[in-house]
Amino acid sequence: MSRVTSDLWVSAYLRRIAIEGGFAVLRRRGATEAGAIAVVVSRQADRLAALYLQAPQSAYGEERPEDRLFVPAFTEIFVEEERIADKLARETRFDPDLWIVDVEEREGRPFLDIARV
Q1: Is 83 a member of any domain?
Q2: What is the domain extent for residue 42?
Q3: Most distant CA pair in the chain: distance in Å?
Q4: How many domains does the structure of the chain reveal?
Q5: Is 73 part of a structural domain of the chain?
Q6: Alpha carbon distance 89, 100 (integer Å)
Q7: Predicted confidence (pLDDT) at residue 64 exceeds the cutoff of 80
Q8: Mean pLDDT lowest for which of 43-52, 57-66, 100-109?
Q9: What pLDDT is attached to residue 20?
């Protein structure tokens, strides 16, 4: 079974966040078919944010090959926004097809499937 396009996945993700009571916007549109996706989650309580990047292929098991899994970009998960901006600048230089979604959520929930690596 093939994986859904990045465009469709991001559209569904934005809708899911709205339904769950969060707020999300598309900051950067990447390649429609298979662009990688980065998600920035801002936590309102302490003004810190988390960056989630798509998990490497090694994180995918045989039981879930078509799902998109994500991993936190930083060990401490929530960091200052400047660190996230620096990391995203490097990522977009490396991958100009990168999608970036910004999420604002009171508790900092990412609404993503997180890989166990």
Answers
A1: yes
A2: 6-105
A3: 41
A4: 1
A5: yes
A6: 11
A7: no
A8: 57-66
A9: 93
